[in-house]
């Protein structure tokens, strides 16, 4: 294992050197974009492999005592990080790597007690957040500087530490009190509300802002583009066909910050431009439809917007649809609710119609690196805590469709090397 880490460090250094050479050539307009994309991919892959190997070493040498110590460090790191970001300390430290600021001046600028600031910063420094190059003077590290230069990054971490953390810590209470069986999630218990998750967020402007920033940041960090949906299903074979996009977002304020899922016809518009013979009906809640009709997507002749609640019977016009599309929807709901949604669709399908589901895929245990799998399963736990929803593996997608009268699963197509999956179902034979 030590040899693996040594080799990966060499690969990472080599990838970083080639990437820097690429940037230098790009500055001189001597480098094409495809080469840069390959080098970025190589650099990211090497970095992730190195992190995986380091994590394996850490687990190998740690005893229960070290794991307990790490838990202590982790929850203190979470609390101190929130403190520093809420007071926007990164923005108050000079960005110039040759310039520092005293604890006294920094405390005065932030309006916080100097002693508390000093204690919290010195803990954060053990985690690579800020530095003290000379006694009593604070400077940035690359980690802390990122918060100063990227407001979305600061907002998404504040969302995690201030909103998601107490929600996740209520998972135990949700099960112990049987609240989940009543439809109440860990989120409902943590926030002491009966509002659904998105309804609660929409009532709090600061949360709405942070949620939008978080979705922008995640979209830039992960491949959530609809390209796999476009490539993974044979849309061209449909010819002139009618597609009903049932990808309801439920949360109108977020869509004003960032377009995701089927909100504002974003995905349907992308598919319509690639496959001009397709006509799309985008279903959404009234507030979303009103916004969609004022968006650029509304100018496409292939798109129409219809108000609909997917727990109700499908409109009569949908009964001749060739495809019902659900993208990044079913992970927001427990299995029983997913089957309600799909049952309404199945009841409206003509014999030749298909259901196309595009979602994240939960890979089988042990098929990914530990760190990658942990991030995947963290997403699943978030869905559990927020909405009693879940991410699903291949078997669970089969089980979901098998439990819907009127639907048979046709195929499940995982994204090669990616995080998404396509699930295609057909109308059951009578």
TrEMBL record:
Domain of life: Eukaryota
GO molecular-function term, one example from the UniProt record: O-methyltransferase activity
Domain O-methyltransferase dimerisation intervals: 74-147
Positions of the O-methyltransferase C-terminal domain: 224-402
Biological processes per GO annotation: methylation
Keywords of the record: Methyltransferase, S-adenosyl-L-methionine, Transferase
Keyword Metal-binding: no
Protein family per UniProt: Belongs to the class I-like SAM-binding methyltransferase superfamily. Cation-independent O-methyltransferase family.
Name used for this protein in its record: O-methyltransferase domain-containing protein
């Amino acid at each position: 294992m030590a040899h693996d880490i040594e080799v990966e460090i060499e690969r990472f250094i080599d990838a970083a050197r080639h990437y820097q050479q690429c940037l230098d050539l790009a500055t001189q307009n001597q480098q094409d974009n495809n080469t840069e994309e390959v080098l970025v991919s190589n650099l990211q892959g090497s970095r992730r492999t190195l992190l995986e190997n380091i994590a394996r070493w850490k687990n190998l040498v740690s005893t229960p005592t070290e794991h307990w110590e790490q838990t202590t460090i982790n929850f203190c790191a979470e609390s101190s990080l929130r403190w520093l970001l809420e007071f926007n300390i990164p923005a108050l430290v000079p960005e110039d790597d040759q310039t520092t600021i005293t604890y006294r001046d920094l405390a005065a600028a932030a309006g916080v007690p100097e002693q508390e600031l000093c204690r919290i910063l010195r803990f954060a420094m053990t985690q690579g957040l800020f530095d003290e190059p000379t006694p009593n003077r604070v400077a940035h590290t690359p980690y802390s500087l990122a918060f100063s230069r990227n407001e979305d990054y600061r907002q998404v971490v504040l969302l995690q530490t201030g909103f998601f953390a107490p929600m996740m810590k209520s998972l135990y209470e949700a099960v112990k009190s049987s609240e989940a069986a009543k439809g109440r999630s860990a989120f409902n218990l943590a926030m002491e509300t009966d509002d659904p998750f998105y309804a609660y967020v929409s009532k709090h402007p600061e949360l709405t802002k942070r949620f939008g920033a978080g979705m922008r940041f995640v979209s830039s960090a992960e491949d959530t583009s609809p390209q796999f949906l476009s490539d993974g299903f044979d849309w061209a074979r449909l010819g002139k066909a009618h597609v009903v996009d049932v990808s309801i977002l439920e949360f109108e304020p977020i869509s004003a910050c960032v377009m995701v899922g089927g909100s504002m016809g974003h995905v349907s518009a992308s598919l319509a431009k690639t496959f001009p013979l397709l006509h799309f009906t985008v279903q959404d809640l009234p507030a979303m439809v009103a916004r969609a009709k004022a968006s650029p997507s509304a100018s496409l002749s292939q798109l129409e917007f219809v108000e609909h609640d997917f727990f109700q019977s499908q409109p009569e016009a949908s009964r001749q649809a060739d495809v019902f599309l659900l993208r990044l929807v079913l992970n927001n709901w427990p299995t029983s609710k997913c089957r309600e949604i799909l049952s309404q669709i199945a009841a409206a399908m003509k014999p030749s119609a298909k259901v196309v589901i595009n979602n994240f895929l939960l890979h089988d245990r042990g098929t990914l690196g530990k760190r990658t799998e942990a991030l995947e399963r963290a997403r699943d736990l978030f869905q559990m805590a927020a909405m009693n929803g879940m991410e699903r593996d291949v078997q669970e997608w089969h089980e979901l469709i098998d439990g819907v009268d009127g639907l048979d699963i046709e195929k499940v197509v995982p994204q090669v090397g990616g995080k998404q999956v396509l699930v295609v179902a057909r109308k059951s034979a009578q």
